[in-house]
Write the structure tokens for this entry.
Amino acid sequence: MTDILVLNDREVASLVSFAENLRMIEQAFSDYSLGRNAAFPVVREAIPKYDGIFGIKSGYVESQGALGFKAGGFWANNMSRGLPNHQSVIVLFDPATGQPRALVAANFVTQIRTAAIGAIGCKYLARQDSRILAVIGTGQQGRNQLEAALQVLPHIEQVVLYDQNIASAQTLAKDIAHYPQKAVVADNPAQACQEADVIITATSSFKAIVMDEWIKPGTHINAIGTDTRGKQELDPLIFARAMVVVDDINQCCYLGECQHAYDAGIITRDTIYGQIGEIINQGKKGRNSSKEITIFDTTGVAIQDLATAGYAFEQALKKGIGSRITI
Ligand SMILES: NC(=O)c1ccc[n+]([C@@H]2O[C@H](COP(=O)([O-])OP(=O)(O)OC[C@H]3O[C@@H](n4cnc5c(N)ncnc54)[C@H](O)[C@@H]3O)[C@@H](O)[C@H]2O)c1
């Protein structure tokens, strides 16, 4: 018989703040690039009958003793059923014995850990004097990424929002109308990108939305939406003149935004500048000049999920939060 702690999304949200998560995700990636943490091969497969994508991301964050996996994915039609499109759960195991220890709802974990890595991309690669931020795709991730970027880019004056569902962009603009930054809804992606210093793409698109000719020197792009084979948000030609940084080189070349430029021979594993952990731990320098175009491709790595869930588990034990089941 094994005792398992169960944490729901609300409980996890009460245990992990954005600032703490930012710190632990930086640490997890820094350690990852030094070979201290592990991410095992990703499973990510289509369930065409239900327009779903099911995946498993597993790994080990040594410093937190967090061994386990996140299983779930993205069901594009859920919204019309009143459900979030993203669905997932994390299972944590005792690394010493293999016994299951916790079952952690992972929708909040996915939101906060993806927001954190987006903030890290902006912090290390965007120009610190960036004033115009474009967000392409104003669903759940678009919202989270916007909030995260504003935490680390103190000089943003204007936010330009674009979504193929114009009502979604208008709603987000209304929701942030009280922010000091001016919120503008663009009619098309070109209008959103042409003046932007930072572009965040957070759509579920399967074809390029952001074109090379719209990108001015000095722009930073956080490519968030492409986390599956076949998805695409960026014109691969942008990669030919950009410094490309990835969360994980294997994942990005296979199922991240890099896949298209990689498959077309525009980039190789050698021309990718590095993994974000190498820049965090100062093994490599970040942006080299104010004119450079930078791309951060993030696909979501198991260490983000495990670091976040492991921390929530530790805090829940200390504070007596969660329910217990025995299996
Ligand atoms: N990198 C990561 O770690 C990570 C983590 C979570 C989600 N994701 C991915 O991010 C994407 C967005 O996730 P979400 O939860 O915000 O989904 P969502 O369904 O809430 O939002 C997606 C938005 O993109 C818009 N969109 C889709 N295609 C578009 C196009 N061609 N042009 C303009 N807008 C378009 C939709 O109208 C919608 O508003 C998904 O592909 C998801 O798999 C990545």
Remarks:
- The longest strand covers residues 52-61.
- The domain at 3-110+303-326 is CATH 3.30.1780.10 (ornithine cyclodeaminase, domain 1).
